[in-house]
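Predicting structure from sequence has reshaped protein science. With that in mind, we have picked out one protein's residues alongside their backbone shape tokens:
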Amino acid sequence: MRFIIQRVTHAEVCVHQKTIGKIEKGFLVFIGIRQEDNQEIADKLIRKLINLRIFEDEHGKTNLSLQDVSGELLLISQFTLYADCKKGNRPSFTRAGDPVLANALYEYIIAECRKQIPNVQTGSFGADMKISLLNDGPFTIFLDSEEIC
């Protein structure tokens, strides 16, 4: 499982020119799921995500978590995080999880995040989405279950 976390001042996702999710200060998180992933792996990454201290405190140090700043989440499923570009110029996505498994884990991640963060917005699984954001920093963190778990 992979999370690309971007600290944002605002972000939104549109499908068919209609905004379906929008946040202010918080994290835009792109989520990639492999076939080998499960809820235990998701729990570890969620815990890391929620407790990640990358917001500035009163001294300008990145010492505050999402909860400390009443931050919001925008969670987007993105199977292309498992693109394999080793051969040729056309990516292979064979490492990405089966859509049924991936959607179930994506929904699980959403539900678990909502237990801790009051405003959790989402994209639409499998849809052609348009994402806009203002990256704050820029600050982008890559979490990979193969390195964390």
Notes: The mean pLDDT is 95. The two ends are 10 Å apart (CA to CA).
